[in-house]
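4.2 Preliminary Data

To establish feasibility before requesting continued support, the project team ran the inverse folding procedure on a target of 831 residues. The structure was first converted into the token representation described in Section 3, and no sequence information of any kind was made available to the design step. The complete token record follows.
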């Protein structure tokens, strides 16, 4: 290719073309540079032939001039270095692409051919071979330009575009970036959303391939966090359709409840949108992927609360010195550039770049000197040094002892792709002692700064670095942000502002998804009983441990109250008083019967059995006291067994009394053989046998499955019931059933003897007492089973007291009435 190009150049007999001053510098190895300093918009329509000249509108991008100076500064430093490329000099050919694709191709051909009016496949170079191209295009232009650079196999190094598409090394093997990949930019934006709890966001993006891929990555990351996207609006890169797009996008912004909008497009369209009606929407936080190109004061009033993700910017002292001391006469001659250098004489400029000017005249059009570190100059600086180190490694590997020769030059000119392997394995420290190397995708291993931009009330702009995202940092240190440095827009009622489809569900509530709505749109409902939510926006409520219960707000678990029937509470105190009162009455009756033991009415009712019955009833009353208080192992054993045995003795005694009454009546009949059975012997046998059966059952119960103390955590809400577990429920109902059996036998016998002569009225009293006893215990069983906790104990105590009192009252009160109040009836003939 080279020989043909040179041959045709000679045939044309063209005179050497003088390069523009400041844009071209001869060297042993040349670096191509495509740096946009002026944007240019063509007025012509489609070209049918090669145009001789171009007409259109242009305006300077003053911030980009720092990029041009950084390029020149880095080359000068390398050439003055004794360590890097010591036997070679770097040259450069920088051309102006004017931010226009057509003019970009023209500028590239100029660099490839070595002429200012380039012709494809021609090479008329007056200096060394071209090594690579350093460019600062937008994402779309980088992709378009790569189709041209791949033809010539020149490495392409971008200092402005973190292109997602071109990170594919198979499709773009010669592409490198001195900016981090936009893949990490998307991850950083998701981290920022998560940090502030912004779950409801809108996205505005240009419809180019790179932006669409980034939007997809953003959408996936947002949804993986459980967040939602309110809307995704795209606009076409067409001036004819832009107005219609803007109206539609503005409507989406105004009608959506989201307060956070991600603007994902290149710098040119970012600045365009900032001058439209979209930027007028108040109460919004904007997240932008790159810094603005323009810093005109007239635009400041339109700036809203913005977070900008930009590559980490560093202050390069040697570059500041170069800007301060460079001779403008050696640079391209341009009226705009003259104005640019005049601004550096302004007193507002930092001392590091403030120039000494003979004239006090400064431009009032633009003050740019305070944003030297806001552009891509640091990226340009690294790009030039990265290429120089790769060249150094390549030249050193060919022959350490051979100087750069014509043969080596031709080899490099024919095989520029050989530089790729050295760029891929590049690893060096720049002047700031930072590690510089490319990852497997050709992206620079570096992170992003997060800048908070807002216009203050006095019209000045706050532009502070408030955080950073570096995916290569140690785990847990990738994302940092300093909220204290952030200045929020005054229209926000709370800071940081909340951006949610639905209000947060506070602790004590959980989220309820709405049908046909995103997951971020939901209702808040209280947690059910027994469950809590102790964090905001919980999907489900949590159950408390068994020994704990939710508090009133249902946002925390608190220990359950252990409840049991105590002597101190009114109910326990009342039952204790009733028990003691009945015990006292029982004692009085026993005393009356002992005192009047020789009276006919006491003798006629089997005095010994009466004593046994009264004493057993006294013990029954005392048994109820065992049910009061916190259950323990001893009281649980005594409760049912003592109650069962004492009641069996009482009922056995009543049965014996009933049988004795019947036998006494029939023994008076002539010729009856029952006389020999009359006496205490049969009564004692009945009492002992009947009560012994109950005692054996209770002992068996204790050996098989005895009652034990038990904390019931499930029966009552919010409390722990301290109660006695019956152990064997079969044994418990056998004990109760046996008492019912004794009561039933006594009732039947007494009922059959109810019509005996009045003087033998004991059967009537026993019949009525058994009726009372049976009613109490019949009602006891369903009531006992339907109650819980201490009220179950109360029911059992009440059954014991009422049935015992019924037996005592029905059998003994009539006799005491006669003994005490009607002594005239206490005679033998009336008994």
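Position-by-position output of the design step:
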């Amino acid at each position: 290719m080279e020989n043909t190009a040179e041959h045709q150049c000679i045939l044309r007999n063209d005179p050497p073309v003088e390069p523009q001053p400041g844009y071209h510098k001869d060297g042993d190895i040349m670096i191509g540079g495509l740096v946009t300093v002026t944007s240019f918009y063509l007025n012509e329509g489609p070209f049918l032939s090669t145009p001789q000249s171009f007409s259109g509108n242009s305006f300077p991008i003053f911030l980009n001039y720092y990029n041009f100076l950084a390029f020149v500064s880095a080359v000068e430093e390398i050439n003055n270095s004794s360590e890097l490329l010591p036997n070679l000099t770097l040259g450069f050919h920088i051309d102006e692409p004017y931010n226009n694709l057509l003019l970009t191709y023209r500028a590239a051909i100029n660099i490839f051919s070595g002429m200012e009016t380039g012709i494809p496949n021609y090479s008329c170079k007056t200096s060394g071979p071209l090594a690579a191209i350093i460019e600062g295009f937008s994402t779309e232009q980088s992709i378009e330009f790569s189709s041209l650079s791949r033809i010539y196999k020149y490495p392409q190094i971008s200092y402005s575009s973190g292109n997602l598409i071109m990170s594919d090394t198979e499709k773009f093997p010669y592409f490198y970036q001195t900016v981090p990949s936009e893949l990490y930019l998307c991850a950083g934006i998701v981290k920022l959303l998560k940090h502030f709890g912004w779950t409801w966001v809108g996205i505005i993006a240009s419809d180019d391939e790179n932006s669409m891929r980034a939007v997809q990555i953003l959408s996936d990351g947002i949804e993986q966090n459980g967040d939602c996207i309110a809307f995704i609006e795209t606009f076409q890169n067409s001036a004819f359709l832009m107005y219609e797009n803007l109206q539609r996008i503005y409507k989406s912004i105004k009608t959506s409840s989201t307060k956070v909008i991600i603007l994902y497009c290149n710098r040119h369209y970012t600045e365009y949108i900032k001058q439209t009606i979209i930027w007028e929407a108040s109460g919004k936080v904007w997240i932008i992927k790159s810094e603005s190109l323009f810093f005109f004061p007239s635009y400041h009033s339109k700036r809203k609360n913005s977070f900008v993700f930009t590559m980490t910017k560093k202050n390069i002292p040697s570059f500041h010195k170069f800007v301060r001391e460079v001779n403008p006469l050696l640079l391209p001659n341009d009226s705009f550039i003259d104005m640019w250098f005049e601004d550096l004489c302004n007193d507002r400029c930092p001392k590091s770049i403030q120039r000494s000017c003979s004239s006090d005249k400064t431009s009032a059009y633009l003050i740019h000197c305070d944003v030297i570190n806001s552009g891509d100059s640091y990226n340009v600086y690294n790009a030039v040094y990265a290429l120089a180190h790769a060249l150094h490694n390549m030249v050193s590997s060919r022959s350490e002892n051979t100087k750069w020769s014509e043969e080596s030059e031709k080899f490099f000119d024919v095989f520029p792709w050989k530089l790729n392997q050295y760029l891929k394995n590049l690893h060096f420290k720049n002047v700031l002692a930072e590690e510089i190397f490319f990852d497997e995708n050709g992206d620079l291993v570096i992170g992003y700064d997060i800048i908070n931009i807002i216009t203050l009330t006095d019209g000045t702009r706050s532009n502070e670095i408030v955080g950073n995202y570096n995916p290569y940092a140690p785990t847990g240190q990738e994302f940092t942000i300093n909220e204290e440095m952030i200045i929020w827009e005054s229209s926000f009622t709370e800071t940081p502002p909340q951006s949610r489809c639905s209000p947060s569900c506070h602790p004590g509530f959980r989220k309820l998804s709405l049908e046909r709505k995103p997951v971020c749109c939901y209702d808040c409902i209280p947690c059910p009983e027994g469950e809590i939510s102790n964090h905001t926006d919980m999907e489900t409520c949590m159950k408390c441990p068994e020994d704990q219960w939710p508090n009133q707000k249902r946002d925390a678990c608190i220990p359950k109250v252990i409840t049991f029937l105590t002597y101190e509470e009114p109910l326990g105190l009342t039952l204790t008083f009733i028990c003691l009162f009945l015990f006292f009455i029982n004692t009085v009756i026993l005393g009356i019967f002992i005192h009047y033991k020789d009276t006919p009415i006491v003798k006629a009712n089997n005095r010994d059995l009466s004593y046994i019955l009264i004493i057993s009833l006294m013990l029954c009353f005392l048994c109820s006291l065992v049910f009061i208080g916190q259950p323990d192992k001893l009281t649980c054993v005594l409760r049912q067994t003592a109650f069962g045995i004492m009641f069996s003795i009482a009922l056995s005694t009543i049965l014996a009394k009933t049988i004795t009454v019947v036998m006494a009546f029939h023994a008076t009949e002539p010729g009856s053989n029952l006389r020999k059975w009359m006496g205490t012997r049969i009564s004692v046998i009945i009492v002992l046998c009947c009560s012994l059966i109950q005692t054996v059952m209770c002992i068996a119960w204790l050996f098989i499955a005895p009652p034990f103390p038990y904390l019931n955590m499930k029966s009552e809400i919010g409390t722990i019931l301290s109660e006695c577990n019956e152990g064997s429920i079969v044994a418990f109902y056998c004990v109760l059933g046996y008492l019912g059996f004794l009561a039933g036998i006594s009732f039947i016998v007494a009922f059959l003897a109810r019509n005996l002569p009045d003087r033998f009225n004991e059967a009537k009293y026993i019949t009525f007492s058994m009726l009372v006893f049976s009613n109490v215990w019949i009602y006891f069983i369903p009531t006992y089973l339907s109650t819980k906790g201490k009220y179950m104990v109360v029911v059992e105590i009440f059954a014991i007291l009422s049935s015992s009192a019924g037996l005592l009252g029905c059998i003994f009160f009539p006799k005491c009435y006669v003994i005490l109040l009607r002594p005239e009836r206490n005679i033998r003939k009336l008994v």
